[in-house]
Amino acid sequence: MEELLSLFYENREFIFLIITSVFLGIEVISNVPAVLHTPLMSGANAIHGVVIIGSIIIMLQADPSNYYALILGFLAVILGTLNVVGGFVVTNRMLEMFKKKSK
Asked: How many CB atoms neighbour CB 11 within 10 A?
């Protein structure tokens, strides 16, 4: 428990930045018109491929005894992959809406 508290204390600036980014992101996304929401989100989700590559690199360079880095890297890979797949599914559905119906 002391290690976790010291981790939060040592990285308090980064934690504050992440919390501020979350609130800013919620505010920005909530003000996007509904017409633009689907194309913007599907494009943004596809960009998460960078998150997957970055987390794989961090996991490869992490010390094998550093379980925090390995667990966070693994979660980043899983969540980034889900986000990329979801982005492509949304894009595919959006493109299906614009195809002409065959008679």
From this structure: 12
